[in-house]
From TrEMBL:
Name this protein carries in UniProt: Cytidine deaminase
Highest taxon above the source species: Bacteria
GO molecular function, one term: hydrolase activity
Organism: Natronosporangium hydrolyticum
InterPro entries per the UniProt record, alphabetical: APOBEC/CMP_deaminase_Zn-bd, Cytidine_deaminase-like
Cross-referenced PROSITE patterns: CYT_DCMP_DEAMINASES_1
Amino acid sequence: MIDEPVTPVTAPPEMSPGDVELLDIAQQLLRQVWVAGRHEVATALRTPDGAVHTGVHLEGSCRRSSICAEAVALGAARVGLPPDAPLTVESVVSVQVKPAGAFRIIAPCGVCRELLSDYSPQARVWLTAVVTTGPGQVPAADQITAVAAIDLLPDKTRRAW
């Protein structure tokens, strides 16, 4: 649990009210379960029926056994569906606490990019992108933006399920 104050993410104007709700849910969940080195990421996602599913990062002692928050949330969403219904996700928001005492929207890792794009290639995935100043590529600011899950993996091999 986070005891000290953590600055929340300010939602960008282009984030829909539903996605702002996901951001708020993810931040509140992480505030409740955060443990350094064990539970450092929380995810909230929405399925087309409007249901919100959450997950937290589970770090394992041998690292390979760790499970990302996005994968936990995807599994929770699948459990909530009828057996013959496809797993479809509309929007995903994952957050982490920065060392400076502020929440940050983060992009999924490579494995979670695969999972999201396998099950919901058009899912809207929110992330924080670094905007650079130009030729020297000096970071100028962070910009919260959304991309389709499939766009997180250029040249992805599409598998027919």
